[in-house]
Amino acid sequence: MAITVVGSVAYDSIETPAGRKDRCLGGAATYFSLAASFFTDVRVIAVVGEDFGPEQEAVFNARHIDTRGIEHAPGKSFFWEGSYLENLNEAKTRITDLNVFASFEPKIPEAYRDSEFLFLANIDPVLQRRVRESMPDVKLVAGDTMNYWIKDHRPALLQVLKGLDILLINDTEARMLAGNNNLVQAARGVLALGPQTLIVKHGEYGATAFFSSHSFDPKGETADHAFRAPALPLEEVVDPTGAGDSFAGGFFGYLASQPELTPAVFRRAMFYGSVMGSYACERFGTERLQQLSRKEIDDRFIVFRELTHLD
Amino acid sequence: MAITVVGSVAYDSIETPAGRKDRCLGGAATYFSLAASFFTDVRVIAVVGEDFGPEQEAVFNARHIDTRGIEHAPGKSFFWEGSYLENLNEAKTRITDLNVFASFEPKIPEAYRDSEFLFLANIDPVLQRRVRESMPDVKLVAGDTMNYWIKDHRPALLQVLKGLDILLINDTEARMLAGNNNLVQAARGVLALGPQTLIVKHGEYGATAFFSSHSFDPKGETADHAFRAPALPLEEVVDPTGAGDSFAGGFFGYLASQPELTPAVFRRAMFYGSVMGSYACERFGTERLQQLSRKEIDDRFIVFRELTHLD
Fold first, then answer.
1. Inter-chain touch B220–A235, beta carbons under 8 Å
2. B220 and A234 in contact (C-beta within 8 Å)?
3. A31, A73, A138, B7: which one has the fewest Cβ atoms less than 10 Å from its Cβ?
4. DSSP helix/strand/coil, A96
């Protein structure tokens, strides 16, 4: 089944202990699309500037990603510059130039309307909601957000959460959103806001899914209603940018590729998410995702199983 | 097979967001022994003061732990006071009174000499080495240490590492010991110092074992030579004190209970370690470990499997 994703397509200048790379093709929708494209059809809604040309278009085309929803506007594409020199787990933003993104009005091509899966990447919740409402017939909606929207745009974000099946955020964001430092309690708090499933991304420690469809166990043992996928201990994290979006793409892409959403499918989707997140870190920007093969993905899936399974 | 453990038996006054408890029976050797006692025979070497009486002795007796190696010295037992109010993952030490521990000279009872497993809990590496050398015939030796010894007693610690089969430390300690911020590279650095296996404890994210018996993969994929056990997402962490020592006890206790050390046994041991660590956090001090049953342990083992396994 096809996924429509709305989010940023951008240029990133990134500095990490492994080096520096200027104007990598990035943005949440780019990472997500590339990762998901190994599993299913992906359609992007975004806006780019005049600096987005045939070379960038070719990156999407090579993965058969539908770019008819990428609007070309006068001006420059969204630009971000950040550094991981101090902390590989958290970027320090140096520059954010919204450019054409400042006046982004997502438009949904007719050809996208039969998408059964919708991913609302991390953008203004007002836009996330608009896209969600424009696609009332989708079967499953997942989304991401960030500290900025949680802190300063809470009412708009709460509206989005009501329309989400699955929310993917990191530990800090989950704790901030729920106002609770205990992860299990924070998860419960977030689930009460709307999503049936919350996936909390732990960076180098993997990710945990919490489910609201079953009530939490009064003894405090929620694990039977939770699932934890590991991350791969990596010899070198060249660039962690987009790892979370790649996780989301692998996860949601695998879900969309399956005929039925069972607990077993959900668990495998989490593992595929971790696989895509681990690959994303191996080179700057989306380089590794651009050169990946499905065989490499499935090989690493087996490595993840080995890493975690008793036998 | 029996385990001899050398380490601290102490009193802890602990403050956490869940409350405060004064003079809990604690110390690394206490947590370790209680956790390991559910799997195998445990023999303790420690020193206590006149404040350690029949009530404390009874805690060990109830779990059939051999206390003949606990020396009673004039003065007070080791006392520690710490707070987790700011950070549940790291205690802020308020008071450390070594008391009788300051002049601790471990003495190994004759009855302990046929122990096949030895655990060197976190004490002065000079003492760890002395105990190690006094028990040359043990089959497997594991140990723990902490930032203080890594920073200020490195030469003595390096001597200990040469005699260890398994080292259990946390992320910060592994990175500090190897002088490398990347966990995989740090693990390789630590393994080069002696131990065949390094278990890095990640607190609420579980623990990862790295093995030196196979060389690291040149592609940077070490996962086929690593194993990651999760921690249980807990509704309430009442007191994280001793979780690492309880992990070590569950892990090493299970290993010692098995006729053969296979990869599958090692993996199950990691899970049992996580199980014991999770129980330790549920009440102040060693309270929960004192009241635990083997059935509860095995039930939670299944929960851990559910939490991580694809099917």
1. yes
2. yes
3. A73
4. strand
